[in-house]
Amino acid sequence: MDITFIKTNFEVPDIYNPMPAKNCIPEWYKNAEGYKDSQVPISEEGVTKGTIKKCMPIFDAISSGYIIQSYVDVKVSIQNVDGKNEQQFQWPSQLPLQWHDREQVPSDYPSTYFYPYSFPKWINIWAIKTPPGYSTLFIPPVHRPSEFSILPGVVDTDTYFNPVNFPFTFNRPDFEGMIPAGTPIAQVIPFKRETWEMKFGDEKNFYEQKEQYFLLKSKIFDSYKKQFRQKKEYN
User: Which are the contacts of 235, defined by CB distance < 8 A and separation ≥ 6?
Assistant: First the structure.
């Protein structure tokens, strides 16, 4: 399957092109040890004490899909405007940000920081096209340190392939500083649209699950990775 990123602003240099998420693994994950103090202790139950680095679901989440990055520096400062402190934004070129009016978002929206006037949004210069039957999930880049989080959304990028901008909120209202060009702003994960129906398992499912559990416990090291994990390819 192909996912096509269509550039709509050719003044932006290619160094800020989207990339597979596996190509920009966060530094904290790269530097993490697989086992505490580089030891491989085994408990009385025969279970190794691996760190988060050994958790394949964490790695699969980090490396899934593609990363869209910012393309100019954005400086954020807090200034007093009409007696109220507001975040102000500056940038050197292009137009990296726009705003949504405050009235477009209900007051009980679960934002880390409630904006009294308007929500900022990243301008995305990339249109995305997927094969028929495939949509795209846009989420904040997972397990990555960030001063902000975009509002997640799903777009049917097989029928609609125009750039999708990313409203965002800061993770703390007093943030001041530089958001440098090249900062990951969105994780892009294509998926196939299918109809799902919720069901509840029966006794057969229960015993299948117990058998799988014992298989999981049959190996000391990397049991899930060796027996159950399926490879995901995003190139």
Answer: 20
What are the boundaries of each domain within the chain?
4-27+64-192
Count, in order, helices (H) and strands (E) of the chain. 4, 14
Query: Which CATH number, 2.70.40.10, 1.10.3720.10, 3.30.930.10, 3.40.50.10490, labels domain 4-27+64-192?
Result: 2.70.40.10
* Beta strands per DSSP E along the chain: 4-7, 19-20, 66-69, 74-81, 84-90, 97-101, 118-122, 126-129, 134-139, 148-150, 153-155, 166-170, 177-179, 184-192
**What's the angle, vertex CA 175, arms to CA 169 and CA 176, rounded to 5?**
125
Residue 210 in 3-state DSSP? helix
Give the whole-angstrom CA distance, residue 56 versus residue 34.
Answer: 11
- Give the C-alpha separation, 160 to 154, whole Å: 11
Cβ partners under 8 Å of residue 203, min gap 6: none
Q: What is the pLDDT along the chain (235 residues), one digit of tens a residue?
A: 999 999 999 999 999 999 999 999 999 999 998 887 666 666 656 566 788 999 999 999 999 999 999 999 999 998 887 777 778 899 999 899 998 877 777 767 766 555 556 789 999 999 999 999 999 999 999 999 999 999 999 999 999 999 999 999 888 878 899 999 999 999 999 999 999 999 999 999 999 999 999 998 888 888 899 999 999 999 9
The DSSP bridge pattern shows strands 97-101 and 126-129 to be unpaired
Judged by phi (left if over 0) then psi (alpha if -120 to 50, else beta), residue 62 lies in alpha
Q: Which DSSP state fits 93?
A: S
